[in-house]
UniProtKB/TrEMBL annotation:
Cellular location(s): Cell membrane
Transmembrane segments: 6-25, 37-58, 70-92, 129-153, 159-180
Official protein name in the record: Gustatory receptor
Stated role: Gustatory receptor which mediates acceptance or avoidance behavior, depending on its substrates.
Chief place where the protein resides: membrane
Record GO biological process: sensory perception of taste; signal transduction
Membrane topology reported for the UniProt record: Multi-pass membrane protein
Organism encoding this protein: Drosophila pseudoobscura pseudoobscura
GO cellular component terms, A-Z: plasma membrane
Family per record: Belongs to the insect chemoreceptor superfamily. Gustatory receptor (GR) family.
Amino acid sequence: MGRFLLLDIFQWFAVIIGLTSYRVVDDRFVQTRLSRMYTLIVNVITVTMLPAATLDLFNSFSMGFWLPQFMWITPYVLHAVNYAVIVHTLIFRGHRNIIQMELHHLSVKLNREMGRAGKQMNSTLRRLFYLKTLTLSCMCLWHFLQSFIFIGVSSLSKILGLIIINSGFMILMSIVHCYFVSLWKVAIGYDFVNQQLEELIATRSPLISRYAEELRSLWSLHASLSLTAHKINRIYGRQMLASRFEYITFTAVDSYMEIIYYFSESAPAISKCFGISFFSIRTIDFFMADYICDLVAQYQSMPKHTASEGVMSNELSSFVIYQNSMNLNLKICGLFPANRKQWLNMMACILGNSAVLMQYHLMMSGKEEKYFKS
């Protein structure tokens, strides 16, 4: 797998926004007293100052020219949900650090095994990581530009408030990326095991002691990957349930607000384009978080169609049976699976909720027109 510069950059970025106090130094996952204190201070500032900064933003940036008066509470509900998820994310930071440390040790072992075998990362997984990193970067950049260009700054206090708001938003986006990267590393491990196992199955001679040792190593690695995947699913379960609730709330409310904003004549055209682009990019970003779950389950028990072509020893046959009988069922808090089908169901729910908001908007708009006419 090798060292990914983008992974190191994201780790530093996570430290800066207070998502973790650990960083990677010479293949070691470490935290210092300074980083621990810095992260604690950033977390306290974010939790205590974010509500005041958001209220100050609402007071200074009026939405009355495009958002109907009877829907004044809509952005407050949206940001209240965002704040609750941010607080939950920061409270359970220690639990995520534990699994991240364990995952780092497993990644170091996997790097060593892949280097010894001369294997490279699957191109599909590489492109998927690049795409996920691109969507995260675009969302953070969009939110930063929206805050400092379209809203504008007039004082030092407003600049500090916008920094806190942007930091909170980046925490919401980055925690989903952490979940994605964790399962992405597990998928790399499964793919390596599958490649090595295909080579062992395809051999035309009986397994010698060296191959038997290789098989035991692969079996151990596969079991470690499965155990780590279950731990990731358990530790990130409540977090991803909260993030999914935040995403549903954001998408349902924001799609309604974007429609109203889009048909507002006084709204700038470039702002409309930014809004539509951000909505689309975040949809793709969250889809990949569910897609990686499908991919991990697929790699974990990938069928061995070449099993009958080579020489099968008892050990190799047992491992193939063990691998094909495993079923990695990644459920969010044991409630529902995280996969592409569930993502489509979620999007259908979002469209339904957005339609309800639009119906309410049309009904109230009609009542207002009748009131003014009378």
